[in-house]
Structures are given as C-alpha cells and as structure tokens.
Design brief:
Elements lengths: L4 E11 L3 H12 L5 E4 L6 H11 L5 E4 L9 E4 L5 E3 L8 H8 L1 H23 L5 E2 L12 H11 L20 H23 L7 E3 L10 H12 L7 E8 L18 H4 L2 H10 L1 H9 L2 E3 L2 H5 L23
Length: about 325
C-alpha cells in the first residue's frame, strides 16, 4: 500500500537580518535545500538582501515579508537557541495582548498602520507585493493582533500566511522546558487565529513543522519524525502540503545585524550554522525522498486546483481551500 505523500516547502526565515545570515541562506538556496525565503522587512541588511534577490532574477522564491514588530512588546524567556522569545518575562503577559485589551481601537490602528508601512516597504524594495506574510516570532497569531493582521492582508491583496500549528509539539521531550512552553503557546495562539484568518480568505499549508526542530534540535531524524506526526490520519495515496520553518546562516558578529538592537544570542550562536549543515547535507534529502516527501515552492502549491488535496484529520484549513466564514 502506498503511503501518504508530502509536498514540502522549506522556508529560510529572516533574510536581511545580517550579511552572514544572508550568506548562509543563499548557500542553502543554491544547494536546493531551501525552496522559499522570507525577507525581514526592517532587518539591518534588508536592502542588500533585496538587491541580491533582484540581481538573481526569477529563480529566487522570495515570497514572504516578516514584520519584526507590530507594536512595542517585551522580550521574554530564552528560547532553545539562547535567543529571546516574545513577552513572557517574569510572568508578564505580552504587551501586545495588554494593549489590545485596554485600548483595542488604538492598538488595531497601530498594528494596521505598521503592517501597511512594511508591506509598502517590501513593494519598494522588490517592485511587487509579497504573496505571503507572517510575523517575526509568530506575533501575527497573537490574540488581539490576528484579526487586524488578517484584515490588512486582505485589503492589500496578500493571500497566504503561515499557521504555526505543529502537531504533537507538546510531547517533544528533547525541547527545554521554556522552549516547549513557547512552542505550545504558539500552537494555542495559531489554533485560535484560524477563524480570523479564514474569514478574510487567507490560506496556508495543511501542516507546519519547525518549532520542534529549531536550532540545535534540527536533525534529519527529527524533521522526518515531525512530518510523520502531521501525516497521522492521512489516507494512503493522498497528498498533504507542509511548510518546514528553518533558520540557516552563519553566526552573526555583533554589532552587525538585527532590527535596530543588534543581533540576538540565537543569531550569534553556532545553532544557525548547525541548521545550515543539516539542511544542505545529503542525509536529510535522502531521508525525505525515502519518506515520499517532494520539495516544492509556494508557487507550486498555488498552481494546485481545488479538490486536489485531501486534508488529514489534524488539518484545520487546507492551503488552497479556505473556509470563508
């Protein structure tokens, strides 16, 4: 009996963060290990990254814009790679949620204005609007933000986003407790954001992986295992679309990099280089081929016709067939 098939988009996040990050992303892209690249719109090296994409021509699949921050918010707990995650410092709730609850109209206006400004910046840099937008540290799925985010994308004609809902991430015992708590919080926020995204016609892949394979935790075995978890419940012979979030690159060297505050600890660590090596080594691609995984771009998924894919039990919304509620 044939096994379910997976069409996998491998996205290198944070193009434009710093020249050394960009060097690693280009290396992974040219090796065929990365199939899409997300541009960090207000990164320290955004302009040089955009120029590199323009010079390289159509083969670049630069399809995503990632606003660094939509509102002021607190940095919080250390992530698995030593970086700092979104606002959970000392038990404080995220500033975005606090602002949205206390002054929802003002917060919505600020989110919309900032997002529209960064979408305009992307157009100026690359001569076209992005087809895919998400938020740095998954801020776009935060309660109080996801609705305004979806409204702005719909108004701007952006159809695709990332839904960072990774099945089974709470059971990934290799993650340190803070990193696992962060991953579970992201998963909960993503699940709650489905309604807002659907109502505004946004689309995403059937499945997402990457929270459990970030930095030091990435390996061919764990990427394969994460994909196997999202395949549970999918009938043999059917196809599921998935996105693997990755962060390849060479370590940043302070003070160069970041988005105004210099590079964070994760970016300066060996873990970015570790991801680059895992992605470009033949072991991962051999394992994916054995698992029936086909690498593709978001453009390839966009060419599908409604009804081609049969979502698995865990899928909340299929990539090309949003439920317009």
């Amino acid at each position: 009996m044939s096994r379910p098939r997976v069409r996998l988009v491998v996205t290198a996040d944070d193009f434009g963060y710093c020249p050394r990050r960009d060097e690693g992303i280009v290396e992974a892209f040219l090796a065929g290990a990365v199939t899409s690249v997300s541009l960090l719109v207000n990164g320290a090296a955004t302009e040089s990254a955009a120029e590199l994409a323009r010079r390289s021509g159509p083969p670049w699949r630069l399809v995503a814009a990632r606003p660094r921050r939509l509102l002021p918010w607190q940095d919080g707990i250390p992530g698995g790679g030593g970086g700092r995650r979104r606002g959970f410092a000392s038990g404080a709730e995220p500033q975005l949620q606090k602002d949205a609850r206390e002054d929802p109209q003002s917060s919505a206006r600020r989110v919309r204005e900032e997002l529209e400004a960064q979408l305009s910046c992307f157009r100026e840099l690359l001569g076209r609007a992005p087809t895919h937008v998400d938020g740095h540290q998954h801020v776009h799925v935060l309660p109080g933000v996801c609705q305004v985010f979806a409204e702005a994308l719909q108004a701007y004609g952006v159809r695709f986003t990332r839904l960072p809902l990774e099945r089974g991430v709470g059971g990934c015992t290799w993650l340190e407790a803070p990193a696992r708590a962060f991953a579970c919080a992201v998963e909960r926020d993503a699940r709650a954001a489905v309604g807002a995204f659907s109502r505004h016609g946004l689309r995403w892949t059937d499945a997402f992986v990457g929270l459990s394979t970030c930095g030091r935790h990435m390996s061919a075995h764990r990427v394969s295992g994460a994909l196997a978890r999202v395949l549970e419940g999918t009938l043999a012979g059917h196809t599921l679309t998935a996105e693997l979030m990755a962060h390849p690159g060479y370590p940043s060297v302070p003070p160069t990099g970041g988005c105004g505050e210099g590079p964070d600890a994760f970016s300066c660590s060996w873990e970015r280089l570790h991801e680059l090596r895992v992605l470009t080594a033949p072991t991962l691609r051999t394992r994916l081929a054995q698992d029936g995984v086909q690498l593709c771009t978001l453009d390839d998924l966009d060419s599908k016709r409604p009804g081609e894919e049969v979502p698995c039990e865990a899928t909340l919304e299929p990539f090309l067939e949003p439920s317009l509620l």
